[in-house]
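Appendix B. Raw example, untouched.
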Amino acid sequence: MLDSIKSPQDIKQLDLDQLQSLVDEIRAFLIENIQKTGGHLAPNLGTVELTVAMHYVFDTPDDSFVFDVGHQAYTHKILTGRLDKMHTLRQKNGLSGFTKRSESEHDVFGAGHSSTSISAALGIAIGNKINRVEKKSIAVIGDGALTGGMSFEALNHAGDSDADLLIVLNDNDMSISKNVGAMNKYLTKLISGKVYSTMKSKSLGFLEKMPMVHEFAKRSEEHIKGMVLPSTLFEELSIDYFGPIDGHDLPMLVKTLQNLKQLKMPRLLHIITKKGYGLETAENDPCKFHGVAPAQTNNSTLPSYSAVFGQWLLDMAKNDQQLMAITPAMCTGSGMSEFETKFPEQYFDVGIAEQHAVTFAGGLATQGLKPVVAIYSTFLQRGYDQLIHDIALQNLNVVFAIDRAGLVGADGATHAGSFDLSFLRCIPNLVIMAPSNASELYQMLNTAYHTSGPICVRYPRGASLIEDYTSNSTIEIGKGNVTRFGSKIAIFAFGTTLDQALIAGEELDATVVDMRFVKPLDETLILKLSQTHQQLITVEDNATTGGAGSGVSELLHTHKISTPLTLLGLPDSFTEQGPQEELYALYGLDSESIIQAAQS
């Protein structure tokens, strides 16, 4: 059946039994295909029924589906003519792991970061109204994404509009890790209050036979609800609430969506799903199966940079109760799972709320505590104002452990840490470090923790080639390290680009410097080498625009030094997806590219 589905129109000819068979076929296909390509397995298994029901009831691309984050949109891709390309998922020149406007007319809004869908769908709904077109706008958002502040801003606006907006709240009690916070507890209370839904439907049906009492009951509906459930947040915001219903009950989903399609005001459908549904191992451990690697991937025994950070946290906390570790809903990804278990009083998962995470850390710092914010480079972008205004301006003692810097691979442009050096370098009071290996990462974290003021330590996704990395050592602020002495050519390597720079240095007989610090730069060393070498090259896994190489260029310009300088880094364009090694070669950051740059 699946091979015959070329567009959403094809499923509208099916009856509900055939539709259920299609759901089963899609789920089996996802399990088989994602294990080959890698990707987000558990989120997609949990939303097959919902996506099929949406396409059965609504008409894309006229009606707009806006998926929050987008990592649950694989079924949507399958039903919109991309089945034959699913084997290219997350690969170079293949399908994106998220929704992407340039990929299909059915992807009305691109995704990758959390908590954006309600804002975008509301904009589309109001745009439809302004353009006087009868189209539907549907936002699909998870309970984890609903913890993000942007979602609340959008709900506040939506409730004050008369937009034809349907919000589907996919509640699986999970974000990537176990969901946290007051919103999660509130939704749990709603689920446990199913007695209310039953009572309401039966009592109002009975009271219809008694007109006077029925009118009173309708007016008193909110008061009745208040006696059985906590006050309904969404209806207090003037958004009509429906549910909760079973998100794996296909006939119920279809019928409910058909009814809600007839309405034209802001409304929310609350569905309950199970992450990893249909695959027992994923249901039992949805966190582990949130994202899976391709089957052919070799599992390295070397420690990942995230694991090194996690070990440093554990080692430091053993002797310092002032350390406070903060994550915006990325406990496992940031290597903090063991820390959460062993030091629960010093661990704070604030949910998908990067802005709050940064300012919260600032508040802790004012009380003499030592906050460490573990955050991905791409998500730090969301807390940029807070980093400037609430941390740097006040020169507070906060350590930022910036994971996934540089090229992240299959997740592509939405998750690449391509810009952190550029947007951090211009902020006063910041110190920025980039370790070349696991040992340096550990030492830099030591340095950051024992240094006053805000400090950023940025490191990439993947494993270091060094297994023994723990140390009590620190590094002198602003001092680089010459790792190879040569002649004529000097290569300034920032971060983990050092490995490839050393290979090129051997071929070129070049001096190679592990710069270590992006801010402050080792100005004395740079100026000295610029006077004794004929050619200078900087290498960084960041945009060359405003990046570390730009800092070297500015220094040379200030001192009126004219030694030729070549900047190697990421181009002024959004990066591709694909294996990290291929991408580093594509963007000229491998040893061969460095050699060619020196010889050209």
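End of appendix B.
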